[in-house]
Structure formats: C-alpha cells, structure tokens
TrEMBL record:
UniProt cross-references to Gene3D superfamilies, sorted A to Z: alpha/beta hydrolase (3.40.50.1820)
Keyword Hydrolase (UniProt): yes
EC number(s) stated in the UniProt entry for this protein: 3.1.-.-
Organism from which the protein derives: Streptomyces yanii
An MF annotation (GO) of this entry: hydrolase activity
Residue ranges constituting the Dienelactone hydrolase domain according to the UniProt record: 16-239
Protein's name in the database: Dienelactone hydrolase family protein
Keywords: Hydrolase
C-alpha cells in the first residue's frame, strides 16, 4: 500500500499530513480523515491504509500543525487510563486553540489539496473523523456542500454546533455514538434535529462502547465497535463515491 508524508499549504503555514492509496495507477475517490485529539500516530496510519485498501485515496492532516509537526506530544504505544490525564493536559490547549474559524480555513486548504492530487479522481469526496475530528468532519461537510457527498463521525461531539450546522448539510451522514457518550433520550433529540434539518442520515449508539472505541491503542477500544464502524462506513462511501 503506497503511503506518503506530505505538506499541505494553508493560510497559516504548512500542515504535515499522511496519505495512503491503492497500489495501481488508476485514480480513486478522495477521503479526508480527521484524527482524534491524540493526532496522527501508528493506529491512524493503519486505519488510513485499511480504508485505502478498499479503493480510496485517504488524506490524514495534522489538525494542530500551527503548534508543530505530529506528534505534538510524546505518546506511549498504549494510551491507558494511567497516562490519559497527563496527555490530555498537554493536548487540551491545542484543541481549544483550534477554533471553528481555523477548522474552516484549514478545510478549504485540505480539500483543495486532496482534489488536486494526481491519484484522486474527479467528483465528490467524503470526510470522516474521530472524537473531536468528528466535529471537524461535520463542519467541513457543512461548509462544502458541493464537494462533500458523505460524512461520518465516530464518538464525536457532533451536536455542539446544533441545528445551524445540520441545516447546511447536503452530504449523506453516518454518526456512530459511544454508549458512554450518548443516552437513548439524547440520541432521540439529536435525530429529531437532523430530521428537522432535512438531513439524510443514520445515527446510532454502538452497544457496549465508551468514548474512543475505534482506537486500538487505547483502553477505550472495542473490537466489535470498530467492526461496526467499518460495516457502516464502507457502504456509505461505496454508495456516495461510486462514480468518482
């Protein structure tokens, strides 16, 4: 599986990024993948490679590039509960500094870069994200309705921007919520808001999961949750990007 380490020009500098794509000369649909708060690391590279193996060019930017290249903090191979507080104490200032305005400015640059890569075909793209990256993915899709055909967010705070964001979406949406993050009542309220906005979506709680369930280098990991994630994500991309 070919991979590249790239630098994406933005209005505030150069964002380092990782890309994975199929090993043949055809062009492929593009997918912008936003990492969780821990950023680009081996597990994210592996997820990008796995998705690329299904026929996609996958671009994973370092969202916090303004503070330096990834990894911005020293991460252990396994992020357990005993180290999580110390790691998040270093990461939270970076997350808080990454305002909605910066997310949208970067999204313009990331999509412009993705759609001009020689391995990427013409046509719409998809955006996916994990944890805080799920919110970035939703903001990107809402800001680029003519480019983004599908958006998926997993264990992300997607309701933060509320109905104002949802009303701008034209992409097909999948939201995979952690059971530890979302009560059935809160899910019902979120889905009612999506219905009122006219969004085409699926939105569900993944049974037996806690926040961060897709990430195999954390103790939040759920093998069944990750499998359900692929079972939802791959058909969504196949439906919406088949002609890209």
């Amino acid at each position: 599986m070919p991979t590249k380490t790239l630098r994406i020009p933005t209005t505030d500098g150069q964002a380092d990024a990782f890309a994975a794509f199929p090993d043949h000369s055809e062009r492929h649909p593009g997918v912008l993948m936003y990492a969780d708060g821990f950023g680009i690391r081996p597990v994210l590279r592996e997820m990008a490679r796995e998705l690329a193996g299904h026929g996609y060019y996958v671009l994973v930017p370092n969202s916090f590039y303004r503070h330096g290249p990834a990894p911005l903090v020293e991460l252990p191979e396994y992020i357990g509960e005993e180290v999580r507080p110390a790691v998040f104490a270093q990461l939270m200032p970076l997350i808080e500094a990454h305002t909605a305005e910066r997310v949208l400015s970067d999204a313009d640059a990331y999509l412009r870069f993705l759609t001009t890569q020689p391995e990427v075909g013409a046509g719409p793209v998809a955006v996916t994200g994990y944890c805080i990256g799920g919110l970035y993915a939703m903001r990107t899709a809402a800001a680029h309705p003519d480019q983004v055909a599908a958006v998926a967010a997993f264990h992300g705070p997607v309701g933060v921007d509320g109905a104002n964001l949802f009303s701008k979406l034209t992409a097909q949406v999948h939201l995979g919520h952690a059971e530890g993050d979302m009560t059935p009542e809160a899910l019902g309220e979120l889905n009612q808001t999506l219905d009122a906005a006219g969004v085409g979506y699926t939105s569900e709680i993944y049974p037996g999961t806690i926040h961060g369930f897709t990430m195999s280098d954390t103790d939040a990991f759920s093998a069944s949750g990750l499998k359900r994630h692929w079972d939802r994500l791959l058909p969504l991309l196949d439906r919406t990007l088949a002609n890209s």
